[in-house]
User: Fold histidine kinase from Alicyclobacillus fastidiosus.
Amino acid sequence: MLRSNGKEDENSQLHQLNRLLSVSEIAAGIAHEVKNPLTSVKGFLQLLHEKYADEYCEIAESELDNAISIITNFLQVARPNMDDEPYQEVNIATELESILDLFLDRQYLVPVIKEFQDTHITLYARRNQLKRALFNLLKNAFESIPDRGSIRIQHYAQGSQLVVVIQDTGVGIDEDKLPLLGTPFITTKDDGTGMGLPQVYSAVYQHGGSIDVESKKNVGTTFYIYLPIHVQEEAHLNTIMDVVCHPDQSIQQFIEVNKEKFRECLVSEQTELTYTIEEVKEIANIDLINNAFNLIYLSLNNRPHEVVTFAKREGKTWAQHSLKLNYKLEWVQTLRKVFWDFFYNYCRIQKEHNFEDFFKIERTVNYNLDTFLNHFNISYNQFKDEVLQTQRELVADLSVPIIPLTRTVSILPLIGTIDTCRAQTVQEKVLHQIELLQIETIIIDFSGIPYLDTPVVTHLIRLFDGIELMGCKTVLTGIRAEVANALVEMGVSIRHNVIKKGTLQQALESIGFNNELLAPQNT
Assistant:
């Protein structure tokens, strides 16, 4: 990628920043005038809904949530300087790996090609801002590919800059829309809000970086992100907060007094919006915020059994609603980070804690959070495994469709490719059904089988022997010329105990069926 000259880059960036600043003037005027009244209305609606269960209240709440969410996103983009997130060392390569884990369900259709170099480089940056920006770009890349395609991600140093390239083989962007990218409410998607790319541009520009875009319709789009590499000598690993702390407060009381601040920190840390907190509540009736407080209180009071019970219940619910496991794991890690930020501020203000107190709380909280993650993971996967096993059994039954024709005659039409695993399933199911239904004659129709290999033929020969051992007669029909030729080439002979017929009609006639009425003939 050949970049334009520095002056042009600077002018383009300045122009984009001016557009964002213009939007910020509008946003400042609507922040308190619109958002706060809507939040108040939502609160009264919730009280009304508790007293009078009514579906119209639910609809109104949902629409208010959408409006508040749009305004919040709008303000986050338009007034980036209001973000009080501290700067810290950030490894972009690691953050990209973490974000990609949120798209595992798409990567079987859209593989991601990673070309990472200079992965040791770190930036002094606002981690959540950049992570949210990278998430938005990758989300757009996946959504731009309707069926199959690929995404290529590059990460390398170029002089004093770190370069991240995200290239997709998607639908592309119209040439006339390229200059407008990054402008709020300008979107290339039918159902888009136009807030994703403005956040990307805003975050990159706030870090002194720049963006280039190349796109061609029905070919794909490539974003080039350039971020300056520089090290801040006095990087603060801990976050200093404006919190209330009374003398002789316990850490639990401290969190309770500053509960709203704790809530804000949890929400602000959620940069990988696989789901929003509201979506999880709507999908599975799970209140992530209240559950987070519950988990912290159980951990601080060292109640491991209650933590295990809570984790198992949560894991099953999460799996039942097919919510992504990696989002929950990220959420608990976010909770852990926010708790330790609060604990740092608690100790900073109290100044009366010794190392023994600190390590006691550290061991108790981390042990219980790890216990929660472990049992949540086990419960989640156990439920998924049970569902998978049920589905496998159902598929196995469907793959061996034994159809009774009369009390003693059944037919087994085999369709599609048969591998050794399916051949084993056929063997087990057929022998079991012969015993269960007391089948005396089974017609096995091979007309839907395109090919047989040697291991599968071996299984089928054993099946014919098993059928004979159970006193049942086998009628084999519908063998294609390709299959017959393959059997001849293998030197396989199906012995005389199996009746061979060319078609299903001939097979039915051979055992006394009238093929028009499909009923036994009178003899």
User: Anything to note?
Assistant: DSSP finds 16 helices and 14 strands in the chain. Residues 1-5, 77-82, 515-523 have pLDDT under 50 and may be disordered.
